[in-house]
Structures are given as structure tokens and as C-alpha cells.
Amino acid sequence: MKLIGKRIEKDGSGHVTVVPEDDEDMWHLYNLIQEGDRVRASGIRRVQNVSATGSVDSYRIRINLTLAVTRVNWSPSTAPGAESGNAAGSSNSGPTANATVEVTGRVAEENMHVKLGAYHTLAIEANKNVRIEKDAGGWDSIALGRVEESCVPGRGAEVAAIVCGEGTATFCLLSEHMTVVLQRLEIHIPRKISTTSSAHEKGLARFYQSLYQSFLRHVPYSSPTLRAIVIASPGWVRDAVFDYIMSEANRTSNKPLLAARNKFIKVHVNSPHVHSLVEALKSPEIAAQLKETKFAREGMMLDRFFKMLASDEMRAWYGPDHVALAADRGAIGTLLISDELFRSSDAAQRKKYVAIVEDVKQKGGEVLIFSSMHESGQQLNQLTGIAAILTFPLDIEVVEAEEREAKEEEERRKAEENGTSE
Amino acid sequence: MNQEELDMAGLNLNEEAPREIVPEEPPKTPAAIEKLIEEAKAALTAQEQGEKQSLSLVVIGHVDAGKSTLMGRLLYELGRIDEKRRIANERGSSKMGKSSFSWAWELDGTQEERERGITMDIALQTLLTPHRVITILDAPGHKDFIPNMISGASQADSALLVVDAAVGEFEAGFERGGQTREHLLLVRSLGVSQVIVAVNKLDQVEWSKARYEEICELLKPFLLQSGFHPAKTKFVPVAAMEGVNLARAEPVGCPLYQWYKGPTLVDLLDALEPPSRDINAPLRFPISNVFKGQTSGICVSGRVCGGVIVAGESLRIIPGDESATVKAIDSDGDSLPWAGAGSNVNVTLTGVDPISLSVGSVLCRPSHLVPLASTFTAKIIVFDIQVPITAGTSVELFHHSRDVPAAISRLVATLDRSNGTVLKNKPRVLTKNMSAEVEISLRNATYSGPASRVLPIPIEPFSVNKDMGRILIRRGGETIAAGVVLELLA
């Protein structure tokens, strides 16, 4: 994403103008734009004119519209990857966006074609300016942090992952903030019946072949930004898949694919489902290569949280209320929070979470904002979306009792005050 | 009457009383089929008192304990493999430089299994002992193939545990993370209550009586703790490669018989109790394999989990809207007119697109459909786990031959293990050896948000059909809990 202009007042109101470029930027926009914001972007609108004689003519024009947002929609890309593998040159044409963000709202600035208050839905387009204007308090540290993060050039290290089992394969493309499932392949392989039947072998051969075809179609193996191609599976499927891909590449003398040989990493996972992607990413082979990427860090931190939950339950808390209590006591060492919580349409909710994040940061704690487009983020979402590893053990029961007491005390005090004032 | 009135009448808009919606009657089973079903039930009831009772047996144990070798040898001893076949297997295996796998060759049929010298999927064979017809399901021991092992174990009523007596090998299989433990827990949770323990490779420890007894003593407390009744657990020393103490006891020549006077493996197999079958329940046939038949039609194999299936009837395939006609039923090469609950059979179906048949689907009668669910509550027992279960834990749910990604969406209550009373409502975590009531939701495999629908699976509460109500929960290659379905929610 490119930052075109930024003007933020002291009270947190103001506007930011950016140019989204790829899918990831669309995801950032989806997280930045909230209900009540004003978004200005170019879009196509059908305009109807009724002439004096009553004839109606309608035409489409491209205009810049400013909307007061009432709803934001996100749909991830399902189309094949940015560039297909065998067209190595196409990587020069720049990344394209397949994911879409749709902003619905009422027009906030009238122009000669569109009346004030008319409804419109803008599909945010790549490589076009988007201006986001928020009211006082809207540009909090989280939002500004996201703008900054999204405009750092040179990110975009990508990893392709194939999670496969016998007869099933899922192709995923992982970037900093997103995991995109490109294709799910399912080939029925008859299980072994008797020693004489070759149905099983035939089924396997069919599976490898379609897997190879999908691989060529979806995995941008020659792209320089692709850091690694992970093949993860239980059993020995990954070896067989790798061998098949390499032998096919040899047979068809696919030079770019042969050159990408050292990008392949084979990892053992325990199940062929997509959620074992987290398991694959925390395996030592990959962790060493991708240590600094966001998704690897998230996976490792979530793993640490679960380990802490196992070894010292009093130092691993989850759930918004509990984490808020821990934050009050300054006990949070690492905060794991899902970006979904900041997307809440309730401004007060968002403010509450922002306050927790700022509080933890101020006290020297580490904050990781998980992307819910990653498997680790999905798992955090399942776990209420917020969790914390504490620096010292705290017993929930004790803390809750303390809170109750404090509340009762407060009420008693209030009651007394009321009593004396009357 | 003018035109307008006629138009309105045609639209049926001005009718006074709303028309009652008559639910469509499920298609009736044709009388001929009905009669056949009755006949089958009568015949099966008679058979239960008869001479040869049938049951199925899953062979379990740690990887390389010798499960396939033991079965291969046993098949040979009982005359199921002829000499010619044995020589062919021997030649084939020595050609690959794996002559020690010659007995396992018979069961490990695929090329990959033979190359690696390891069982990867269930092999199905039939054994005839003097009083029993035993369907053998040879399970893989490697932990990556536990899904296949579960698929096999869910089709069995009893188990044969093979343990390696060699020093260090038994211990490796029995310690934490070894498959001896996990397999035993799995089969017990899947409703298997009888187990025979074959202590294998005794020849490698000089037929030591002390070693045999040491192993028995180590296993007994664990078996009891896992819920196997001591009266239903039997131990037998064997040596699969040499074929000692399998079918015949040969007192001369083998040092084993200097101290062992007990029954042989076949004697024990012959004494296995067949479980009671529920042939009056509605038909349930979970599919464990789909393949092309020898002639026309498509073949599915699996075990009848309730009721009877007869040739000629029309069955629904759940999930889906498809129906298929049963063309033939066969078991071990013999064509059968019907098959009752508990029997492992191949069913040839016609009049159906193979695409609508998949492993994990259930065949049932149109009059008694199996319910579908994507969220349900279950009573689970948590195994010996390191990382506790929280609400939202991502798991794999195993139900018959199907495994699907799921999440423990809610922890309802922890229960007392002995009497089932509620100890604590809404616990924060479940730790090892707890018993609890939880809500399980199937997970979507993509990230496209709530819009995409989760596909429900055919499942029934345990109180309705025991076989259809058992679930296993695994995470990260480790079985973390087993349970029974209480109630279907959505």
C-alpha cells in the first residue's frame, strides 16, 4: 500500500489517503474502515436523468464519491494465485488484487450527479486512491499502527503450502496477514482390497497427476517473493508428492521449477486437514527459515500460550473479562489479541480493547495482533479472540473474589453517600 | 364471471382457508423386500444359536510388533494360504531384500506397503476356526495411520493385541506415546470389550518364562484401568515367524512347552464370545471403502451397524439426496441374500453415480433416515494429555471411517467419572483423566467467513444406536478424548 497523504488532529480525527495494491492491502483496508467513517474513493455509478419530456436516459459514469459507511464487506480471493507458474515473466506486471472490499453507505458529499444521502456501494479498486476519514478518537494507536505497517515497502515474503494426505490436498498461499486457500483437491483413492487389485495404485497415480496440474496452476514457484514451498503430510505422502513433482519437471524439462528445487521443504504433520498448517509452521525446519514472519511468530506464540496453560494454568488467561482483570493488575507479559475484536462495530468495545493494548505496551509487555485470515488467528478466535501470558501467576478465583468485594465496597460507599446526602 | 375473477381463481390467492401441507410419506418398502427382511431376521436369530458364530476381530499393537506376520502365518496354518501362494510371497519378498516380511506379504498388498515393510491400511481376511467365522481386520501400527486403524477398529467386536517380547521393544511400545497404549484405549472407546494379548517374538528372548510373565504383569493393571474386564482378557505366548503355539501345540522340540501348558492362539480365538446383535434396529451401513466392482456397479464395503440389509432393496445414501439399489451382497467371495448387524460385507450398488458415494457416508432405509448434525453435545473422557482442552480447541473428530476438523465449542460441565453427577458448570479447561460434557461443532476448512456452510455428518445419539454414537477426538497426532454423543443440536 502507498501512503499518499495523512492529516491527523490531536484528538484523533482526520484523514488518511492510501493506494491499495494487492490482496493484503485489501485486508488492511477492511480492518481500517469502520462503520461511521467517511470513505472517498472512485467508483462507477448509474445515473438516471429524467428530461422535461419525461424520457429517461441512464448512463454509467466514473466518479469520486464520499460515503458515510454503514457496512463493510470482505470477500477473500478464490481465483488462482497472482501469477501462474509457467508464465515467469508475468511477475513484472505487478501483483494484482483478487480479494474485494465493499463499502456500503450514504453519499456524504453531493455532486452534480449524485444527491446527498443516496445509497451507494463502492467496491474498492486496486491502484486507486482511497481516503478514509474518521471522527475524533477514530485514529487510535491500533489504526495508525496498521496504516504504518501496511505501507512498509518490501514486505510480501510469501510461502506456498500444500497440506496433503492420501487423496486430499489443500493449496494455500501465506502472506504476512493472510492465508488464502487456493484450491482443495479431493481424489477418491480406493483403499486396498486384495493383493491382486491394482485399483489403489491407479487411484494414487491419478491423485499425483492432478496434484501436479494444480501445483502448476496455483503455486507461483518462480516468483522471487516466494520464500518457500512447504509440503506437509502425515505418512510418506509428502515424499511421494515431491518426487513426483520433480520427476515430472524433469520429464517436461520445466527449468524454472527445477531451479526452485531448494525452495521445497517437507514437513511432517499429523493430519491432512488445513488446520495442521499451524503445526507445520511451528516445526523446526520452517521456524528457522521464517522466524521473522508474522504468521510464524503468531503460531509460536499461540503454542507458547497453550504450553503455559498446561504447565502453569494461573499464568495463562483467556476471555475478554479475565484478560481485562489481568491487565488491571499489570500482570500481562504477552497479549494475544485477534484483529476481529477491533473490527467490532461498537466503538466502546473497540476503545476498551485499544486501552488494554496500550496499557500492556506501556508497561513493557509484548502485544501480538493476530490476523484472523491465518489459521493461528482462527484458533485464537475460537478461544474468544483474546488471551494473555502473565508474568506472574494469578488465581482467577481469587481475583474474581477481589473484584466482587471491591464492587460491594463501592456500592456500600455509594449507598452511604446517598444516605448522608438525603 | 369476468376474466379478472378467473385469473385470480387460477392463482389460488383468494382461497379462504390456508391449505394444509401434507408431509410426503416416505416411500414404502415393497412387500417382497419386506418379506425378505423378515425372513432374514428369522434366519439370523436361528443362526445365533447355531454352530458357527461369526465375529470380527481387529489386530492391534505397536509398529513392528508383528501383527501382519502373525496373521499371515495364522492364515497359512489354518490352510487359508496354500503352499504355492506362500512360495510366491517368499520369492517376492526376498527379491526386494525383505525376506523377513514374507508372511506379512499376504496382508500388506500395496506396492508402497511392501517397499516400506509397513502396514498402512486395514487388510480384511476371514479365518475359520472350529466354532467361529472370524473376520480379521489387520490394523496399521504406525502412528501416522491411526485414522485407518480407527476405521478398522470401529468395525470390530473384539481385539487381538500383539506385543513384541524383545527387550526394549515392548517397553518402546508401552511407554507414553507408544501405540500399545493408544490402540488399547481406542478399541475400548469404540466398544470392544474382549481382548486377547499375543506375546510375540518369544523366540528372541530364549522362550523366557520370566519375560512372558513380566509383560503380562505390566499389561494387566493397564488393561483393567482402561476398562477391560479381567475375565475377558486372555494372554498367550507365540512366535509368529516360527509358527509356534498358533494353531497347534507341539510339545516336542520347542522350549516353550517346558513351562507353558495353556491354550494356543486358535483355541482362544475359538472361545471368543460373539456380542449380541441388534437386528431389529433401523438399518445403518457406514461405508469404509468405495471401489469398482468386478462386474458392473460400484462396490462399497463396511459393517452393518444395526438391522439387516437384503439384496434387491433400495437404500438412501446420507448425506445427499441419492438412492441406490442393492444388487448383491458378498462376504469373502460368497454371495449372500442378506446380511445382519455385525457382519462385514461388500455391497454392490447399481443405479447410482459413484460420485455420490464417499467413505463415511451411511446407507439406510428411506423410512428410517439417519440424522445429520454439525453441532452436538457429547460426554467425553479425557485421556492422559499434556496440553489441557479449552473452549475452542481445534481437534479432529473421528466417527467410523470419517475424520473431520472440528472444535470443542463449549465446555458444558465436568462430571464425576463414577456416577456422572455434575462437578462444575462451565469449567475453564479440561485436564487429563476428567470426564465432561462438551459441545462439539464441525469446523469449516476455509477462511471465507461464516457465509460458507459446514457440511454436517451422519451421526446418532448413543442412546439410539450405540455404534453410530461413538466418537474419538484427536489433536496433533494424539488421541485426547473419547466419548458418546448425547444430543444433536444442529
From TrEMBL, chain A:
GO terms for molecular function: metal ion binding. The keyword Cell cycle applies. Residues 1-152 form the eRF1/Pelota-like N-terminal domain. SUPFAM superfamilies: Dom34/Pelota N-terminal domain-like, L30e-like, Translational machinery components. Its main location: cytoplasm. GO terms for cellular component: cytoplasm; Dom34-Hbs1 complex. Residues 75-98, 403-422 are annotated as: Disordered. Residues 404-422 have a biased composition (Basic and acidic residues). The keyword Translocase does not apply. InterPro entries: eFR1_2_sf (IPR042226), eRF1_2 (IPR005141), eRF1_3 (IPR005142), eRF1_Pelota-like_N (IPR005140), Pelota/DOM34_N (IPR038069), Pelota_N (IPR058547), Ribosomal_eL30-like_sf (IPR029064), TF_pelota (IPR004405). Its cofactor is a divalent metal cation. Keywords: Cell cycle, Cell division, Cytoplasm, Meiosis, Metal-binding, Mitosis. It is found in: Cytoplasm. Residues 79-98 have a biased composition (Low complexity). One of its GO terms (biological process) is meiotic cell cycle. NCBIfam families: pelota. Component of the Dom34-Hbs1 complex, a complex that recognizes stalled ribosomes and triggers the No-Go Decay (NGD) pathway. In the Dom34-Hbs1 complex, dom34 recognizes ribosomes stalled at the 3' end of an mRNA and engages stalled ribosomes by destabilizing mRNA in the mRNA channel. Following ribosome-binding, the Dom34-Hbs1 complex promotes the disassembly of stalled ribosomes, followed by degradation of damaged mRNAs as part of the NGD pathway. Belongs to the eukaryotic release factor 1 family. Pelota subfamily. This is Protein DOM34 homolog. It comes from Trametes coccinea (strain BRFM310).
From TrEMBL, chain B:
The keyword GTP-binding applies. GO terms for molecular function: GTP binding; GTPase activity. Residues 16-26 have a biased composition (Basic and acidic residues). It catalyses: GTP + H2O = GDP + phosphate + H(+). Keywords: Cytoplasm, GTP-binding, Hydrolase, Nucleotide-binding, Protein biosynthesis. Its main location: cytoplasm. This is Elongation factor 1 alpha-like protein.
